[in-house]
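Extended Data, panel c. Modelled sequence:
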Amino acid sequence: MSFIERENTCNPTVHILEVLASVLGIPVHWLLMDDSMGKLDSEWIALVNKAIDIGVTKEQFKEYLFLKNQFNEIH
């Protein structure tokens, strides 16, 4: 990690990426994404923050998405 932080390399090995992803609890491909990919605009960020503020859990949000998808498939 310190090797990357000191900018001695711009291309970490796959093993280093796997370790970083594991520590961060994210999929490896997230580390490889272009900066413009997956960015949320300010409105999405505000909505997510509001949901967190009112106590919506990740599980509740996943359930909502699942149910919404099921509804859309029926109609």
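Helices lie at 2-5, 14-24, 28-31, 42-53, 58-74. This feature is highlighted in the accompanying rendering.
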